[in-house]
C-alpha cells in the first residue's frame, strides 16, 4: 500500500542489519506474539486494539459515526459537485466512487446514526440488527483497521516478508503453488485480523510481488479469521470447552481447501501476470536457506521508508480503506441480519437444503440450513444461528463454517471488489460454495469425533 521507489537496474547494497531486525522483530512480536492472560489467549495486536478501545471508551461511537459520516457525505458531495481530479489524489481515492457504493455508504451511515441517536426505524435498532452490527462489527473493525494499517508496514516494508518468504518457499510452492512470502499474509490473518492479512496481500500484488493467480489464491484461502475472533466465535456458539479441537478442525479444513482450490478452476485458470514490474529483489529466486533469507531481507530494508514517509503512508491508507469499506460493510451486515431474522427470504432460499437435513433426521433443520448459507453475507451470522441450537454437534459445525468459508460480503468481498484483483461477485460466490463443500465434511468428521 505504501509507495516505493521503482527498482533500478543496479542492485542496492544491503541495509545495516538493525534496519531489518528492529522493525521486523517489532512487527513479528505485535502481530504474532502470543499472550495468555488468565483464561484468555490472544496476541499483542489484540492487546493493542483492546487498549485503543478502552482509551476511546464511549467516544468510539462518535469516532465510528465520524469515519462513516465523512465517507458517505464526502462521496455524495464529490459525485454531485466536484470536478474529477487526479487518480492519485487523496480526495479522489477516498470519495470518488460509483452510485451503488455511495448508496451503500449512505445506508451504513444511516444505520450508525439511528443506533447512535436511538431514533428512526425500529427495525434498524433491534438487538439482532443494527445494535449488533454497530457494536460487534463496526466498533471492532474501525479499531482493527486503524491499528492494523498503522502497524502493517512493519511486516511488509522492512524485509520480514523477504526473510520468511525465502525460508518458506519450498513448502508453499509444493503444497499451494505459491511463493513463500505468502506465509506472512497467512500468519497475519490468523494472528491479527483477516482484513489486515487481505490488505497485505493486495498491497503486495499492487507492487508486483504476486501475480494475479498467486494473489487471488492467497486472498481466497488464507485470509482466515484471526485467533482473537475465533475465540469470540467459539464463545458465541457455546463451544468454548471444545476450542482447541475445534480450531484444529478449522485449520485442517482450511489447509485441505487451499491445496484443492489452488489446483482447480476458477483460481487455477487465472493468469500469472503482474500489476507492476516484479521488484529486482525477489524472495523467490533459486537461492534458499538462512543466508539467502538474510540477504533478501536486508536488500528490501535498504529501500524501506523513513519515519515520516511511514506515518504519512499508513494514515493515508487508513483514510482510503476506512472510507471505502466501513460504511458498505455495516450496510451489508445490517441487510443480511434483516433477511435472516426478520424476513422469510432465507427460509425460502434454503428450503431444499432444509428438506434434505430433515430427511436425514436432523433437528432444527431450517435453522441449520440458514446457518450454512448466511455466512456469504457476514461471517458472524452463522455463529449467531449456532447459539440458538441445542445440538453441540451442529454448533461445532456452524461455528467452523463461520471461520472456514472465508468469503463474505460485509468485509472480504467489499475489499476484493474495491481492489485491482479480477474477481467479480459471481466468482466469489462460486468460491464460497466450493469452500463450503470442501470444508463441511472435515467439520462434520471432527464434530462427530469431539462433541458429546
Q: Would you write up a description of this structure?
A:
By secondary structure, the chain is an all-alpha fold. Helix 8 crosses helix 14 and helix 11 packs antiparallel against helix 13. Helices cover 68% and strands 2% of the residues. A hairpin with a 2-residue loop joins strand 1 and strand 2. It has a two-stranded antiparallel sheet.
Rg, Å, rounded: 22 Å
State the helical fraction. 55-70%
Number of strands: 2
Would you tell me the overall average pLDDT? 86
N- to C-terminal distance: 47 Å
- The total of helices stands at 22
The major pleated sheet works out as: 2 strands, antiparallel
| Low-pLDDT windows of residues | 1-10, 281-285
Strand order of the largest sheet: 1-2
Order of helical and strand elements:
HEEHHHHHHHHHHHHHHHHHHHHH
The fraction of residues in strands falls at: under 5%
Class per helix and strand makeup: mainly alpha
Basic shape: globular
Give the SSE layout.
Elements: H1 17-32, E1 34-37, E2 40-43, H2 44-56, H3 60-81, H4 90-95, H5 99-117, H6 130-151, H7 153-156, H8 160-176, H9 182-191, H10 194-206, H11 212-222, H12 227-236, H13 243-261, H14 289-301, H15 307-341, H16 345-349, H17 351-359, H18 365-373, H19 381-386, H20 392-404, H21 409-417, H22 425-450
Antiparallel strand pairs: 1-2
What would the keywords be for this entry?
single chain; 452 residues; mainly alpha; two-stranded antiparallel sheet; 22 helices; 2 strands; 68% helix; 2% strand
Short summary of the structure?
This protein has 452 residues and is mostly helical.
